[in-house]
Amino acid sequence: MRGTRSSTGAAIAIGTLALTGLVLAPTAAAVTPTTVTIDADCGAFGGGAATLTATQDGTAATMTLNSSAITAPIGLGEDSIASTLTLVKAGGGTTVFTATENPAMDAGDPVQVGPLPGTVAAGDSLEAFGGSLTMTVFGITITCTATAPQSPGPFVFD
Q1: 156 vs 153: CA distance, rounded Å
Q2: For this UniProt entry, which residues form the secretion signal (predicted)?
Q3: What whole-number distance in Å separates Cα of residue 12 and Cα of residue 136?
Q4: For residue 17, is it within any domain?
Q5: Domain count for the chain
Q6: Would you say 136 and 82 are in contact if contact means Cβ atoms under 8 Å apart?
């Protein structure tokens, strides 16, 4: 009887450790890299370094753009910028991410748009260079393009 209690206690301890290991184990990112930098040219509206952040859940993906080099020309309310981000696929074609998603921004604040939802397939390799970001604010369309390939490389989706 005594051996059974020790065995049961050991089994519970091992099970608890295994469960703790599963809970604390890092989750694999579905898209790699998750963050890239680009140099964007937005014409008369400015330009400079910007960060694109990607997430993926199955075939659903989102992109968020942040840039302290590109600033809000005027105060903007939450969800007031209609944005379309077009990324180029490695094998040809494009993938589009679009929404009216942005935080409220004061004049001069760094620009942030997204998350912009889109659909991806396993194996998609997406690059900003050759694509564009269009933002429509109060009827004015601002088009930004990457001046070089993104770093450290294209987004690759699982």
Answers
A1: 9
A2: 1-25
A3: 59
A4: no
A5: 1
A6: yes
